[in-house]
Structure formats: C-alpha cells, structure tokens
Amino acid sequence: MRTIRRFEEKLVELVTAGKLAGFLHLYAGQEAVAVGVCNQLDNRDIVNSTHRGHGHCIAKGVEVKGMMAELFGKSTGTCKGKGGSMHIADLDCGMLGANGIVGAGIPLTAGAALTAQVKQTGGVAVGFFGDGATNQGAFHEALNMASIWKLPAVFILENNLYGEATPVEFVTGVRDLAERAGSYGMPSAIADGMDFFDVYEKSAEAIERARNGEGPTLLECKTYRYMGHYVGDPETYRTKEETEEWRQNRDAIDRFEKDVTEISTLESGDLRKIDAEIEELLDSAVAEAEAAPYPNPEDVLADVYVTP
Ligand SMILES: Cc1ncc(C[n+]2csc(CCOP(=O)(O)OP(=O)(O)O)c2C)c(N)n1
Q: Cβ < 6 Å from ligand 1: which residues?
C-alpha cells in the first residue's frame, strides 16, 4: 500500500517540477482494495484495470521501475514506452491491462474468465472498475454472461463516491451498488475499502468461489480517492473538509499500521524500514527512467498489432 501511495506522490512531484508529462488519474486513498484483493492472486490469475490503474498494477506485481520508465515514455518501460499511465499491461504477471475506456475492462474480465474456464487453467479473472462504470451497458452484459456461464470471475467495484465530478447518488438509483448483482442471480458483498483486512476476507471468499467453479461474485468496496479525478482537477464538486476527513480519520495505511502492530509482533520501526526501502526503490526508478532512451521511431508499429 505504501509503495502505491509513494509512487503516486512521486508522480505529483515530478509533474509539478515539469519533469513528467501526461494525463494522470491517481489511485491514492484506494490502496487497501488493490492490495487486499491482489495479495491472494498468483500468476495464473488475470487482472483487468481502469484509467486509475497504478495501484492495481503494483499490487499484481508489475515492476515499479518498469512502470516509472513507462510513464516517462522510455523504451525500458513495461510497454516499451508506448502505453503510458492508462495502458500498462504485463502479461507475465497477469496484468491484462489498464484501460482508458470506462467500463471496457469488465467484459474483458469475463473473457479472461471464460479462457480460464475453457482451458482449465485453475486461474480466476479479477476486474476492477468504478461506480461510474456500473452505469455502462458493458457492466450489465458482462455480469449476466458471467453469471449464466458460472465464469471464474470476481468483479471488484471500487465505489469512491464520484464518477469524475458526478456524485454517485446523482446518477444511480440504488444506495448500495452491490445490489445490482441480484438482477443477474450473482452473489455480492460489501467491504470497507479503507480496511485491508475486510477487503482481504471478503475477496478471499469470492476468489475461492470462483476457483471452485461456483461462479462469479460482485464485491463493492466503499472507498475514497484523495486526489482529484486527474492531476490538475480543480475539484469544485467536493469540499476540502470532506477530503481531509477521509485522509485524517479513515486512511487505510494508518489503519493497517495500527491494526497490524496491535495484533502481531511487527512494530512501527519495522514498517519504517520498509518505508525506507520504498524510497530507495522510487529514487532509483526515477533516476533510471530519466537516464533511459526513448523508443526508436522505426519501432513505432512493433507489438501494436500481433497475431497470436
Ligand atoms: C466510455 C467513456 N465515457 C467517458 C469517459 C470519460 N471518463 C473518464 S473517467 C470517467 C469517470 C469514471 O468514473 P468511475 O467509473 O466511477 O471511476 P473513477 O474515476 O471514480 O475511478 C469518465 C466519465 C471515458 N473515458 N470513457
């Protein structure tokens, strides 16, 4: 969780310093969701992400250095500098891709789950998406098909209260979006998306159900994004007081530290050591990304269209 948070804080520093360009949608605040879910997945399992994908990628095991170089558009990046923030994919660790089209990853999750079912890989497919995406037709079609075919899929709905600048209650008729699963005969659950352990436990049940051939689940995680919709968003649709309240009193990393130091032999000092390692990793990721070459113009079409 700390790696995701610090990775993104570093990106803000770099954008502010004029060293990094691009359109960034930051995940900070929602870390417990990605980490709580992905901690239980292995390389057989496929993850589909959104425009807010840094957290999902890091949690699924995509190399931080490769991601940083990707954001700099360098040839050493995860996608050789051609993907950028919204299109990071790394098939070696099961990251099928981030996606700039709202809701588009949900049928891709169903497709990946169908592949796992047909090929009997033992893997599950996990799709992350926001509250806004549940108003796309693709969400409803994919959930229906996943349900009737009992696909090994887990749909993780990150309800961070806003779709861009639109409050969820302004566009959605149900209070708990998890209820929508009922229309498709699919089990659902609601987790506190600011609590790693709650996400972990509820997604564990869903992952187990999928792995056992019992079909898909919709898990709604109630969460909050700390930064604007994108870097540079004036955030006129919400108050500073609201954001501060979540940051100060409901932060997932603070809560994790409190819980884990109370129930285990880990102490705050141990966590600070991990923090120091993260800082070192990020500093070298930035230095290496800055020093790396840009892709060659003659390679612009390589890997863009592939025939399997
Ligand atoms: C099909 C489509 N419509 C609109 C957009 C513009 N857009 C980008 S993000 C976003 C809001 C998405 O909200 P949500 O699904 O709740 O995800 P969040 O940003 O809250 O993580 C919109 C409308 C888009 N990228 N794709």
A: 50-52, 100-102, 129-133, 160, 162-164, 229
